[in-house]
What we know:
Layout: H1 9-19, E1 47-48, E2 55-56, E3 66-72, E4 88-95, E5 98-105, H2 121-128, E6 132-136, H3 141-148, E7 155-157, E8 166-167, E9 177-178, H4 181-190, E10 203-204, E11 216-219, E12 228-233, E13 238-243, E14 246-247, E15 249-250, E16 254-255, E17 260-266, E18 268-272, E19 277-281, E20 286-293, E21 296-303, E22 312-314, E23 323-324, E24 328-334, E25 339-341
Parallel strand pairs: 3-6, 4-24, 6-7, 10-23, 17-24
Antiparallel strand pairs: 1-2, 3-5, 4-5, 8-9, 11-12, 11-25, 12-13, 13-14, 15-16, 17-20, 18-19, 20-21, 21-22
Amino acid sequence: MLRRAPLPLLPLLIGALLLTGCATEPPSEPITTPPEVTTSSTPEPVYYSPLTGRVVADEASTTRPVLAAMVENLPYARPQSGIVEAGVVFEAIAEADITRFVLLYQEAEPTLIGPIRSARQYFIEWMHGFDAALARCGGSLEARTAMASGAYGLDLDEFSYGGSYWRENAKEAPHNMYTDYTQLKALLATNEKMTSTFTPWLRQDGTPAVTPTASVIDLDISSDEYLNHYEWDAASNTYLRWHNTTVHLDREQGQVHPNVVIAMRVNEWTVNEGDGARQRIATSSSGSAYVFQNGTMTESTWVKDSSAAMIRFINAAGEDIALNRGQVWITAVPNDNSITWR
């Protein structure tokens, strides 16, 4: 016989069930922390022009051929075209007191370059270190012989490629011959000159000096008409250029304003080449140089071991000087002429 539990125990059983009722409910979901979302992205590569040190669009831009162009500097030729867009400029006396430039381009595509004039041997040797093709209109006997030999790179002489040059009516001959990047690029393709190989200079991001020591530069290269005068502009960290007291203008781009100015002392003399008195400059050599950038000056030595070698600028420790990105303007100053700054 089953016995009934005493009644007093029933309330206790009911209470126990009520107190433990949560144990009969489904267990709650565990609290978890969402996993961290991580992305592994590779930074886009940055490419720099070997000529200027500036950022360029892609890797193909870093192997583009270098173009050199001989441009005159007589007052009749001013204002010139294509100067501001040049990555490197070499300046020297061409004859008598008259200076001339060889402009070097790689990533730039100037719409106008000129006036184009004749070459000299020392300009050819300076640009040879950049594995450049040369746009010119004639040259001294020594220069013509050198380019005809094929040992100094591709020759784009106007006498051979007249259709790629033209005379501008706004100026008088012979100070009015021009070309442009489109014309020269087509000549490069025709001659299968698709790249240039050279050792680029060490480059850096320039930082303007807090206390500048070289805000004004004067380079006595020849007569007053061709005196180089520069004034440092801290805002752009460039050197604004004058011919003595006259602003040096690029007709399309405004005042010339290199990022780096270099004055190098050179041995210069005059010889009779058979087609008249010609200047000579020792290029495969060395000498003192002054590097102006960021509002300061660094004493250095220029060194060029051979015609095909790149010209270098080294400090007292024998190290290559890092040059600010952008245009480098190099002036060959005769040893006896003054170089001053303040």
